[in-house]
Every structure is written in C-alpha cells, then in structure tokens.
Amino acid sequence: MIDVYQKMIDVCHLAGLASGLSGEMGPLQPGGNVSGPTLADVAHAAGVSYATADRVVNKRGNVAQKSIDKVRDAVTRLGYVRNVAAANLSRQRVYRLAFLIPTGTNAFFNRVREHILQTADHFSSDSVTVDIVDVPAFSVDALHACIGQLTAYDFDGVAIVGLQSVTLEKPLADLRTRGVEVIGLVSDLPREFRSAYIGIDNTVAGRTAARMTGIGNRDRGGIIQTFAGSLNARDHAERLQGFRDVIAADFPQMSVLDPILTKDDPAVLRDAANSALQADQPVSAFYNVGAGNVGLIQAIRETPGSRPFCVVHELVAHSKQALIDNHIDLVIDQRPDVEVNRAFAQLRALIDRREPPPAPDLMPTIYVQDNLPANTFNSATDTQIT
Amino acid sequence: MIDVYQKMIDVCHLAGLASGLSGEMGPLQPGGNVSGPTLADVAHAAGVSYATADRVVNKRGNVAQKSIDKVRDAVTRLGYVRNVAAANLSRQRVYRLAFLIPTGTNAFFNRVREHILQTADHFSSDSVTVDIVDVPAFSVDALHACIGQLTAYDFDGVAIVGLQSVTLEKPLADLRTRGVEVIGLVSDLPREFRSAYIGIDNTVAGRTAARMTGIGNRDRGGIIQTFAGSLNARDHAERLQGFRDVIAADFPQMSVLDPILTKDDPAVLRDAANSALQADQPVSAFYNVGAGNVGLIQAIRETPGSRPFCVVHELVAHSKQALIDNHIDLVIDQRPDVEVNRAFAQLRALIDRREPPPAPDLMPTIYVQDNLPANTFNSATDTQIT
DNA sequence: CATTTTTTGATAGACGTCGATCATTTTCTC
DNA sequence: GAGAAAATGATCGACGTCTATCAAAAAATG
Questions:
Q1: Strand (E) or helix (H) holding B12
Q2: Closest residue to D16 by CA to C1' distance?
Q3: Among candidates A2, A216, A4, which has minimal Cα distance to B219?
Q4: Partners of B99 in the beta sheet?
Q5: How far apart are CA A300 and CA A277, in angstroms?
Q6: Across the interface, which of A8, A84, A130 has its CB nearest the CB of B129?
C-alpha cells in the first residue's frame, strides 16, 4: 500500500475504505529519519577525510583526480544534497538583489514596485535584501549608465526592465563576469546577456486581445480602431502584430485600422478616441495596445449611447474601475505580481545554482468585471500604463 | 552621458532584516553590514539574559509579564527577525506534508498530482517530504477514515481536497489538536476546522463564464443550455448560481435552461449535447459547469455546421485541444498548479508560524486558444474533469 | 636519495537558533 | 519572615556547512 520513492519524497497511499481499514497500516515510521546524508557521510563513504570531500564539492582545488572521482561517486550514490540553510548560515549568505525599474508616475510600474516591496519584506527573514533602482524610462543611455554603476556594489542578482540595444551588451557582460546574475523583467534584454526573461510574450497578448474582440463582435463585424504609444516600442508593435494576425485569420469580417499614435498620453488618447467615436463610419471596437487609458475611459464616459467593444492592457486602479463601471469590456493583464514573485525565485535559484521551482508559463490574463482580484491598487498616481 | 546619470540614479535600499522598515533612502555601502540583530542582541537590548529572551520568543512560558514586554519591545525596536535557516537547522526541522487527493482517472486531479510531485521534488532540498494520499472520490466516509488515520503519522501539515460535512469535524479537530496544520484545497472543508482554503470561489467562476457567454452572444441573444454533474455538488451548484445571476442581470436577452444532469459521465453528456443540438429551438450557447467534456466535444465534433458558443471548465489535454480545434470557445480554469504552489507556501508558513508570502487572490482564469500555456498535460487518462 | 611540490588528514571556530539543565534570585503565600 | 513557587541567568551541545590552519603523508623532481 505504501510506495516509497527513492528521493526524499515518499508518496504513500493510505488504504481507502475498500481494502481493510483495520488499525494502522504499515510503516512510515512517525519518527523516521528523513534528513539526508551529510557531507561527513559522503566523505566516509568515499574513504576520504571531510576536508577532502569539502575541497571537492566546493571546488577549492589541489585535489587528486582519483579523489575527486571517489567523492563525486559517493555523492551520487548517497544522493547527497548540500543543506542550503546550513551553508547560508555558515557563510552568512545574504542575497543582495537589485531591481531596475523605470521611473515615472506609471501606474503599472507602481504596481511592480509595490509588489517588490511586499515580497522583499516577506523574504527579509530569509536574508534577502533588495534595492530598487530608479531608471529614467525608455532611455538606453540612462539604463546603460545605471547598469555600469551596478558593478560598484556587489549585488548577487539583478532584475532589469530591459531595452533591446546592443549598447547594453558591454555593461551587462561586465556585470556577469563579476558573478552577478542578470534577468530581464517585463521587457527583455539582449538574449545572450541575461540568464532568463520573466515576462509575457507580447505577440500572444495581442493575439489574445484579438480573439476576445472577435468573440465580442462575431455577428456585427465592423471596424476596429487601434491605439498605440509608439510603434518603436517593441512591445506595442508586437501586440499590434499579434492582434492583426488573429483578426485577419479568424475574423475576416472585421477590419483593423492603423493605430493612432498617442505617446501613451491620456490627453492625446482622449482626443483621438473622441474623434473616432464621432466618425462617420461607426467604429465597433477599440483596442489600445499601450498606456494612457485614463484618456480613453474619459472619452467613453463622456459619449452617450452605446460604445464600441473595448479592450485595453494592464489592470490598474482606473482600468479596474472602468471594468466595473462597464466602460470597457476586457483588460489583458500580464500579472506583474506573479512576474515579480517569479523574478525573486529565479534569481535565488540562479544564485544558489539550483533549479528554479516548477512554474507554469507566464501567459496574459483576461480580466472581466467578474474575476477581478480583490487586492486594491492603492497607487496614488495612475497616469500611464504601458 | 554616463557622468550625467551618475547622480540621477536613485537607489532605494531595503534593509533585509528590518522587518517593518519601509525603504530607507540613500546610497548603499558596497560592503555594508546587512545581517540583522540576533536574539542575543535582543536579549542584551532588553536587559535580560539570552535564556529569557528565548523563552519569550519561543513561548516556553514561566516568564514574568514585564520581561515579556521588555523583550517584545526590544524585538520591534531592533527589528529582529528570527533566522529561519538557523532555526530549522538547529531543530532539524523537516516539513512533513500530506495531500489528500481524490482517486480516479480524473484528468484534473491528475494535473494536481503531477504538480504536487514536481513541487515536492523541488523542495526536497529544503527538507520537505510529501505524501500523496489517495482518497476515494466524493465519499465522506472514506475521507473521514483517511483523516482519522493521519493522526497515526506525525505530519506537520495536511492539504485536503475537502467535502462539506459535519462528520469531518471531529477527525479534523483531532488532527489540529495534535498540532497538524490543515488547509482545504480546491474544495473547502468545514470553515472552523481548517486554517486556510486554497481554491477559487466557484460563484465567481460561474459569473465569469456568464460574462464571457454574454459577450460572445451580445447581439444574437438566445438560449443557453447548461450541464452539470450533480446539483448536490456544491461547486457545481455555485457555478450555476453565479452564471444565472450574471445572465439575468446583464444579459436579459438570453435565457438559461435548467441544467441537464450528467453525473460527469462523458457518454451521458454526449447524448444530452446531441439532443440539444438537434432540438427544435436552436441553442445558442452551451455551458458545462462540471466534467465529462470529452463527451461534449465529441457531440460538437460530430455535428456539422455552426455550433453553439461553448464554455467549459478546467484546462486539460482534451479541453486544450478542443480550444485549438475551435470546437469550444473558452475554458475557465482554476490553475491547479498555482493552487498547489500556494498550498505548499501556505503550509510552510503556517508550520513556521509566519506570514504567508504576499500573493494575489486566486481567480478563475480565462483561456482561449491564444493564451494557452505550453506545458503539456501528459496525463494518459482524461475521462473526467472537475 | 634528498628536496620540493602536491595532496591529504585532523581539527577548530564560526554562523544563529533550539532545547536542555542547573543553580540562583526574585516573588508570592501564609 | 520562613518556605514554596515562580522567574531568571548562565551555559552546553547539538544542527551541517564554511573557512581556516597546520602537520603529515604521498607524489613528483632533479
């Protein structure tokens, strides 16, 4: 009845009603020894001293090859895993993390910031220290300078809201040669110069928006007015591309107008939305790939009568409220809270040189007014979104 | 350029071990002392011995109130957080966890199982052992017996896919008096007899399904045929209720037919769906609150021409495929992988008597064919779902 | 073979906490 | 104010790892 797997995981099947329930079933000794072998055990099994075993596992050098082999063998034979807690305790390991986040009164990044603070607070009992570094938004030069400065502090890991630019490659390479783990967050860095990317695929986000827009307009067809901050912004361009692809392929009865470029400015967006709402040819859907939704929502609120089907990105205070008030239909969100959690886990795993915890892919989440998280987004400032 | 930004960079450092501290601004000292105060420091600051401080923080009793106050005060003043790594090392803490999961060839619970195994594997290096206990599905008696047996083994925490029954109260109470932490997973236990519930609100799930159905049928209105396994199943009833509420309130042009009861049997569902498809009055939408979607999908696949708008629950191999093949429109999923992760975190937090990590509410997730996770669900058996 | 170099063994102190024990001091009770 | 009870202080040995140091042994070198 009780299967015991090799590792430390014993999966035990207590008999259900079917087979006799009589009394206590077999083993699974309550006080059983569950803690694994120590390095001392390994040394003993390998027939070497603790010191030698230590030299091997910590790569201190000056060990004969045959000793290395003996120890390696014993490690695998006994299934030794080093006790991270003890190790960190001993060397007073402190995980020094830094997050490079764009500045500004951007509601989305305020959400990111908030969650970093919360998470940092929680992990403080695990000796994790966190620095949030403000970087002027969307400036390659500023980001470059910032990354360059990081080498002055001895961080163990850095999460960067990145930009795609060859300029960044050098400072990133410098960082990594100093043993700092680097990951991209929300927006990727040059591929070869980071260990991981934590963020969504923006093409997928655009496709998802398109699917929902299509579903919401199956019968009426019609015209979709799109908005974007700038087509130079990679994420905006990708979302738009994904959106167009799906509409063209699966909802041919609808047509997608070229995006109105708003620079993510709510005022611009408001004016643009207003003129679209008053156009001769009625627009049946709005899709804003970028930020500035406050303006879009205002325009909609000001216009009486029925409104176009409306999809925007990123759940923040005002987009959440607009969902509740029925001013927009859907919010496609990238769950920055989940991303931040993942970033912490990933950085710690990289620093400890172990596998990151199993976790599903990050996929854009669809919010309607009914599946909204209760957590309030109390960021005072909510002008932009990205 | 670089010099310009040298002073613009604003680094906010969050001291790792100062618990309540929000970020203190200012530059970092690269080699700065980051490790926080120890219990010895606290004792000294409080003007008591280490032993007394220890007695206070570990609640060993036999301490005068004024000593307790002095220590508590020093703790908050210094921002002492106990070093979990050291503590666990010292007491050779092993987290013995058990998951009680219904048996059967249920694709959804296979997903749960798989993720438990993966997560357990990962945490094995953190001294976490996991037992998966198979319980005959939906049987209060079996669950009762199983919980009763748990007291024989000294688990530290147990996650139970629960049932609502007063019968369970006694064994649960027994477990908890023995110091075992109990949480409900996916399906709740009697409220007073568990420390937390990890799962979605099924009313919300139903509401979400309704919202999407409404959006997908705004103009055509029409009839919605619902399916349920059994109305005695609490989750099924709740989903249906949420669904009806939203349709009635926000999409009055649609009407909801009483559910066809399928016992979650694919064959039954297939027949029911087929007759609905051939009914005189055309049905414009299907909503299955329960399992057995294989049958529903078969019926749809067999019927030529356009099909009703189709919403089901739980993303598993076949529902995923059906989304891709355009046989259904939406899957409302409760992200069992996220739930399992949360269960681990919650149990560990409860056992350590500390705050669980910050995490957003669990909300039903909406999948369309574009935002599907790449992870394959390789469960061979996929008969049922809920 | 003598000398240098490389490789080993033995061991010690630290990390911060836990769970003890035992002796001492303070407080309470009558 | 004596005796009992409660509270406190002092200290010890774990836990498993890391980082040393020093001496001893083995291997390589000329």
A1: strand B10-14
A2: A86
A3: A216
A4: B132, B159
A5: 8
A6: A8
Residue B93, number of CB atoms within 10 A of its CB: 18
From chain A, pick out residues whose CB is under 8 angstroms from the CB of B368: 208, 211-212, 215, 366
Residue A180: closest CA among A199, A161, A152: A152
As a dihedral over the C-alpha atoms of residue B105, residue B109, residue B112, residue B117, rounded to 10 degrees, the angle is: -30
What's the Cα-to-Cα distance from B231 to each of B239, B289, B305, rounded to whole Å?
A: 10, 10, 32
The answer to whether B63 CB sits below 7 Å from nucleic acid chain D is yes
Please name every residue paired with A12 in a beta bridge, in sequence order, or none if there are none: A2
Cα distance between residue A209 and residue A125, in whole Å: 40
Cβ of B383 near strand D (distance < 7 A) = no
CA-to-CA distance for A254 and B6, rounded, in angstroms? 51
Residue A382 has a pLDDT of 34
DSSP A102: E
Query: Do the Cβ atoms of A357 and B122 come within 8 Å?
Result: yes
Which domains are present in chain A?
A: 39-89 (1.10.260.40), 93-199+337-355 (3.40.50.2300), 202-333 (3.40.50.2300)
The protein footprint on chain D, as nucleotides within 7 A of a CB, is 6-11, 13-21
* Cα(B156)–Cα(B133) distance, integer angstroms: 15
Ranges of chain B whose pLDDT falls below 70 = 1-35, 105, 375-386
Q: Look at residues A183, A235, A180 and name the one whose alpha carbon lies nearest to residue A209.
A: A235
A65 Cβ nearer than 7 Å to chain D strand: no
Put simply, whether A3 touches B (Cβ < 8 Å) is no
Q: What value does the mean pLDDT of chain A take?
A: 84
- For A312, phi then psi, to 5°, come to -135, 175
Q: Which chain A residues contact residue B363 at CB under 8 A?
A: 371-373
Three-state SS for B222-244 is: EEEEEEECCCCCHHHHHHHHHHH
Q: At what angle do helices B202-216 and B234-250 cross, to 10 degrees?
A: 40
pLDDT of residue B11: 54
- Angle at which helix B50-57 crosses helix B65-78, to 10 degrees, equals 90
Residue B336 CB contacts under 8 Å (≥ 6 apart), including other chains = B108, B111, B112, B115, B186
State residue B9's pLDDT score.
Answer: 46
Quick check: B127 CB within 7 A of strand D?
A: no
Mean pLDDT, range A250-272, rounded to an integer:
94
Please indicate whether residue A261 or residue B164 has the higher confidence score (pLDDT). A261
Q: Which nucleotide is nearest to B84 (CA to C1')?
A: C17
Segment A250-268 mean pLDDT:
93
Token pair 């006694």 in the structure block, residue: B170
B90 touches chain A (CB under 8 A): no
- Indicate the residue type of A383: T
- Residue A17's pLDDT band, with cuts at 50, 70 and 90, is very low
Rounded distance, CA A161 to CA B58, Å?
Answer: 42
**CB spacing of A208 vs B371 below 8 angstroms:** yes
How many Å apart are CA B189 and CA A364, to the nearest integer?
32
Distance CA A236, CA B63 (A): 63
d(CA B337, CA B343): 10
